Amino acid sequence: MAPEAGQPPAGWYNDPQNEAALRWWDGISWTSQIAQAPGGGGFSPPLIPGSVPAAQQPQPAQSVVQPAASLTAATAAQQPTVVVAGRSRPLAAWWPRAGAFIIDGLISLAFSLPFLIIAVVLLAGIDWQAIDISKSGELTGISEGDTVGVGLALIISLIGSLTVGLTYQPLTMARKGEQNGRTWGMQLLGIRVVREGGEPMNYVSALIRQFLVMGLLYGVIAGLGNAVTIIGGSIAVLVAYLWPLWDAQNRAGQDFICSTHVVKD
Asked: What is the DSSP string of 63-124?
C-alpha cells in the first residue's frame, strides 16, 4: 500500500514513545520493530534501513537448542538434595522407593514361605465342614486335635513373620561399606537409607525403622484405625508411604520418626 499524501516514506525514525530508540515506519503506521537509536530527538528525517547497524536490525525469532550436556546439568541442579555429614546427596524419587518396597516384600514372602506351607498343611488336616457356631456363639464340632492344629499353625506363622522381620531387612541394611543402608531391593534400584547425623545404619537403627515402625507401628495404626473407621487406618498408613510425593525432602512417615533420608547413588 502506497504512503498517503504528506506521510513520510517507509524507514527508521526516532521512536516518538522512546527518544533513545528507533522504530520502523512502514509508510502508513508505526510497526513493532525497534532498534537502538544513535541519539535522541523528535520526529527526524527517515533513515535508510541499511544504515542501521546489522546488530540493531530487528531479527526473526530463532529457536535455541540447548546442548544435551547443559540439559543434564540443569536437571541435576533442579534435583532435590540433602546435606548429610557435610556431603550433598541427591534424594531418591518416590518410584524407586516404591519399587524397592515391593521387591523387599516379595523377598520377605519367599523367606516366609516354608513357615506358611507348614501352617497350611496343619490347617488342611482340619475338618472345617464339621465346625459350626451355635446360636449362643459357642464353637461346636471342633476336636481337641483340631484346636491344637489351629494353634500350631498360628504360632508357626507368627514365628515365620518374626524371624524374617528380625533378620532380612535389618541385617542387609546393617552391612558395612558400600552396601550399608541397603536392603536387596534398594541395592537393585540404586538407593539407600542414610541417617541425618551421618552415622552408618546398624542393626538397631534398621530394626527400629523397618520392623518396629514400618511393621508393628503401621500395623497397629491400620488395625485400630480400620476397627473404628473401616478403612481409616489403612488410609493413614498409605498417606505415610505417599508423603514423599509432596515433601520437599522426599521423606515418608518412617523417615520423620527415625530421622533418616533415602538418597540415590
From this structure: --PPPHHHHHHHHHHHS-EEEETTEEEEBPPHHHHHHHHHHHHHHHHHHHHHHHHHHHHHHH
- Amino acid residing at 11: G
- 46 and 91 together in one domain: no
Does a structural domain hold residue 40?
yes
Residue 248, in any domain of the structure = yes
Could you read off the pLDDT tens digit of each residue along the chain, which spans 265 residues?
Answer: 555 566 778 887 887 777 677 888 887 788 878 776 665 444 454 544 444 444 444 554 444 444 544 444 444 446 799 999 888 999 999 999 999 999 999 999 999 999 999 999 999 988 888 888 877 777 777 888 888 999 999 999 999 999 999 999 999 999 999 999 999 999 999 999 999 999 999 999 999 999 999 999 999 999 999 999 999 999 999 999 999 999 999 999 999 999 999 999 8
Q: Measure the CA dihedral 201/191/197/169, to 10°.
A: -20
- Other CB atoms within 10 Å distance of the CB of residue 8: 13
Residue whose cell numbers read 483340631: 146
Is residue 70 a part of any domain in this protein? Answer: no
**Residue 123 contacts residue 153 (beta carbons within 8 Å):** yes
pTM for the predicted model, two decimal places: 0.68
- Assess if residue 68 is contained within a domain: no
Same domain, 125 and 234: yes
Q: Do 262 and 250 form a contact (C-beta atoms < 8 A)? A: yes
Same domain (yes/no): 221, 177: yes
Which domain covers residue 136, as residue numbers? 85-264
Residue 211 per-residue DSSP state: I
188 and 98 together in one domain? yes
Give the number of domains in the chain: 2
Strand-by-strand arrangement of the 21-25 sheet = 11-14, 21-25, 30-36
